[in-house]
Amino acid sequence: MEKLPKIALPVIIVAIILVVVLAKSAVTIGSGEAGVLYKTFDNGVVTDEPPLGEGFHIVAPWNKVIIYEVRQQELFEKMKVLSSNGLEIQIDASAWYEPIYKDLGNLHQSLGENYLQRVIQPAIRSAARSVVGRYTPEQLYSSKRDAIQDEIFTETKKILDKQYVQLNEVLVRDVTLPNTIKEAIERKLRQEQESLEYEFRLVTAAKEAEKVIIEAQGKADANKILSASLTDKILQDKGIEATIKLSESPNSKVVVIGSGDSGMPIILGNQ
Q1: pLDDT of residue 238
Q2: InterPro entries, from UniProt (predicted)?
Q3: Which class does domain 73-177 fall in?
Q4: Structure pTM?
């Protein structure tokens, strides 16, 4: 086998060096990620340029790229906080957050990769303690869950302002009270519901009684008016009209006129 030419050995060495350099210089950034460039010999973290986007990048081998996930992420927290009257309440909450893309360099420089533990967790815990401390257990259990969710979001967002993090939503998934307090609240709510139902029945019965009284009064007034308007002459005229109509009926066979104390006609039928 013939020996390689003398020029081939340096070429092979240079090629190997290039491969090693390229391997150290090549950076691939995946979907939903971005890279912060750190220039070892030029002021460190690059903050005045956009972060490196998805795809393949070549950087100087002496520089570094720190990769961050820039998609929306979720933080789930179980927190024990105190209500307004000092009772311990457990809140299960989720926070949806993401780093602000254009400020990724500033985020890395000021907070680093563990920014979740540095600012987001302390912020949501502080906001939850502040908000829950304004309400009683009864309010937290029944009508105020949506309100505390919105207030925790607002206060957490205020704390995270200028921290290069975007808070999208806070969801209060569960509010857990001590069993004795929960049972007392449920018992009170049942009693209030029963009381409302009883009051409703009383009001309904009173309205029904009022309706019967009004109807009875109306009938009494109508009878009084009718009695006042009926004279003997009118009654006799009505009797005559009725007699004539009955005499025309095929069921009437005998008519006796002028009988009775009042002189009203009497009609005798088939019987």
Answers
A1: 66
A2: Band_7, Band_7/SPFH_dom_sf, Prohibitin
A3: alpha beta
A4: 0.61
